[in-house]
Structure formats: structure tokens, C-alpha cells
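## Example record

The block below lists the input lines for one assembly entry, exactly as stored, with component labels intact.
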Amino acid sequence: MRRFVTIPLMAIAALALQLNAEATEAEVVAVVSADNPIDSISRIELTNIFLGKSGSFPGGAPAQPVDLREGAQSRVMFYSEFAGKSPAQLKAYWSKMIFTGRGQPPKAVDDGNAVKQWLAQNPNAIGYLDNSLVDDRVKIVSVE
Amino acid sequence: MTRRLYARLVLSLLTGVCSGGVVAATEGDTPSLRINGFGTLGVAHSSEDEADYVVDPFQPDGPGYSRSWSADVDSLAGLQVSADFTPKLSGVVQLLAKQRYDNSHDVSAEWANLKYQFTPDFSVRVGRIVQATFLYADTRNVAFTYPWVRPPTELYSLVPVTHNDGVDAQYRMQFGGIVQKLSVAYGSVEQGLPDRLGGSETKAEDIFSATSTTEYGATTLRISYLRPHLTIGAVNPLFDGFRQFGPEGDAIANRYDPDGGHAEVVSIGASYDPGQWFITGEWGSIDYNSVFGKNDAWYLSSGYRFGALTPYVTYARMNHHGATSDPGLTLSSLPPSQAGAGAGLNAALNDILGNGPEQRTITLGLRWDFMPNVAFKAQYEFIDRDDGSPGTFGNLQPDFEPGGDVDLFSASINFVF
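Predicted C-alpha cells for the full assembly:
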């Protein structure tokens, strides 16, 4: 009798561990060009830039967000972690901005490598990518 | 002559589009011309048989008396074309097809304006512009952008117009993570009324409005003020009638005629949406300074997101203030030949005064985001009209009984592209 309970419990625990491992393994970080003087940003300031509410970094320098294309896993993680928005909510948010005539979503590129290329050419840009892709062309911005 | 003008217009538009394209190439291929669309396919059913459920005075009919199920309350289709002519100058045209006051479904220009972005934080628009009084007014026609089938009727019927022709200026400020937007607008708008309200024209002119929107993370706060001069053609014959009855009639007409002054709207709304759930509430009031008295309304709505499913609940209340009756003309002092006409005017006046909208609604609904850009919604509303009031219902039939409650069922599919 007890075994019938234990096995599903163990299965659930294993699944939870696995999910947890996946969650910590892939981490999305906010990045800017290596030449950009900015080191840290608050979570709200970061999402303001990506949601088109703000056009500048703290301190006043112009900020140009660059997105990953819709459906990219890092994009889903980035918006869920920093803005608390699911893909559907993000779609609804941008519909709202587009249909008020007040804004357009950031430029979107295909993958993390394209983000790095973009940042290398645009010193004002800010993007995000999987931390395994970080190299010396980009700098991680710590989000407080 | 006309052809040459047309050719020049097309040429300058093309030049604009091309130069926009060139600029876009240096800035990172931002498209210079964008086409977006939205639409809703919805049906609604009301248990009230002797009146129609209407969300604003411009709706000619609705579910209830006119038909059992109506697709016209919520269904609509819109197309928006935006163009960047230069990095600072852009234009937008939004075309909308929905049931109009005359029961046609003709396409009309909901917006058509030019925007000049003087700085990243300061812009001015000229042309046909959205009337953004309430929190969800900017995208009132784009149901995909809010949780419900439609914004709560009690509050949103206070300002039924969705755009005006004029100019607005918006200024944006930032303090740390707080984004503060201020906008002021001035304009006018004309709108036909359906046959059920006499079929005449209604005008809002000399409209001044000011809106403050504050955003901090998941929190949004909006405070609005709106001051239009209203001309409601349907009541003109009534007051013209009173004015033929000497000083007493003049006094009555001056007290109740909307043409005499401005209406005033104030509203405050807030929403908190951290992602997993949301809560939003708004309060607003319109003082017509006329026979229509003063209405105020508020609602509170909350929902929780279980993956693609968002069940929500809303409570809304609408109150009417002002005289509910008036003795009108003193019939005993009138010559017998005029007493009949006088009694008719008194009855018409008291009919308006006595029909102030007062009701509350409890809404239970579900939004299902079954595709990234398509949502399905179903909602049930329990509408409880105050004793003696028709509530927000229209097209009242002779057998209509004010007060009482109504069940309203709605379902809709919303999409954007």
C-alpha cells in the first residue's frame, strides 16, 4: 500500500528536481556592448526600455533595445523573469501599444549570436541572451 | 488640375516612404510602413425582452427586444496603417467597420492623424485622434488587449465617443523607474444618433481634455479631465417647445438645455498586473449640467492566469444624481388651447428626468488565449437595475418594466495581426 504512494511521490520529486535543474541551467542575462559604460540597472528600468516606456539608460544615455524573435526560448524566459509577462501577455501589451499609435516592439533578431553582432555595431543597444553565449564583445549588466 | 494635385500627393507620399526607408536602413531596418489589423467576432444574448442591451447611445439596437442573439454589440474589424515619413514625422490611419448609428456597417476612419516627435519625450498629433479618457479607452475597439469581452458598460458608457478631430500634445518624464505621461488635447466631434433616439445629430465641441498616466512597474494610474460642449439634437425640439411658453418656459429650457454650458468628466483609474494575476478599478463621473443630470460609475475587476486560461470577476455600479422630476409648466395658468401642448412637454421632460441609469452588474468570465494572437472569451453578466430605472438599456418598449434584473451572455473571438 505504502509503495503505491511512494513511487508517484518519488516520480514527482524527480520531475521537480529535473525542472529545477533546467531552470537554473539556462539563465538569461541582460547584455550591452563591451564599450557601454553601464554596469547595472534596476529591473523596472530594464523592462521600461524593453516595453518602450523609456528610451534611455539610467543616467540619460539613449538606449536601444534589441529583442529575440517571437518563440525564442530566451525571449520567453527574459520577459517572464524580468517583466512578469507570458508570450500571450506580451502580445497583448504590444497590441495595446501598436493600436494606440504610441509604439512598436523593439527590433528582433534571430538568435543570441545575432544579438552579439548587433551590440558590437550599436553601442547604445541593450539585449539579452543565454549566459553560455556571453563573450568579450558583450558585457553583462547586473539587474538589481 | 485635380489629377495633378493627386499625382503630387502620391509622389510626395512615395518620397516620404522612400526617405523613411533610407533612414530606417541606417537605424536598423525599422519598417517605414506598417499594416496591423484587429477584429472581434462576438455574440450576446439578453434575457430582457422589452428593451435592448446597448453599450452606448450610438448603438441602434442590440440583443433583447430587437433580436434574441446579436452579433453587433461586439463584432468589428479594423485595419491600421502607420507610416514613418521621417524619423520625427509619422502618420497613422485606422479604419473601422462596425455597426453604426444608422444600422449600416460602413467603414469609417476611426483615426487619421500626423504625429511630430519633437524629442523622444514630447510629441504633438494633429487630425483624428483617440479620446483616451479611461484606462482602456485607447484600445477600446481592440478587445484582444483587455481581459473582458468589453470594458464595463457602466463606466465606459459615460464617454461613448472614441475619437475627436483636433490636436493633442504628450509629454513624458521619468524619475527612476517611474514613467509619468501628461497629455492635453483640444478638438470636436460629430456623431449621428440612431432612430430610437430621434435620429438627429449630436455634437461635442470645444472639447478640452487633460490626462495624466503614471506607470511604475506593474502599476498604472490614470487621472483624466474632459470638458466638452454638447449639442444633443434629439432634445432640441423639447426646449424649443418650452421657449414658446414665455418666461416660465424660458426658465425651464435654460435650466435643462445642454446647449447652455459644458459637461464635465473626471475619472481616476488604477491597475496592478504583476503577471500571474491582475486587479483593476476605475471611477468616473459626468456632470451634463443639463436635463441628463449627473452620472457616476465605478468598477473593480480581478483575474488569475492559469496558463492560457484567465478567469475574471467584475463588480460595476452606476448611479444617477439630479432631479428625477420637475413640475414643469404650470398648466392651470395656461389658456385651455395650450394646456395640452404644455402637458406633453412636461411629460417629455419628466420622462428624461425619471429615466436616469442606475444599476449594478456582477460579471463572471473566462479568457482563453488559445493561439498567440487569438483569444476566446465567454462571460455572464447579472445586471441588477435599481427600482424604477431602465439602467443602461435602450429601445424601451411600451411593456418595458424598469428595475429588475437581467442575465446577459456573451462570447467573442478576438484577434490581432
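The longest helix of chain B spans residues 2-27. Chain B has one domain: 31-243+262-324+355-416.
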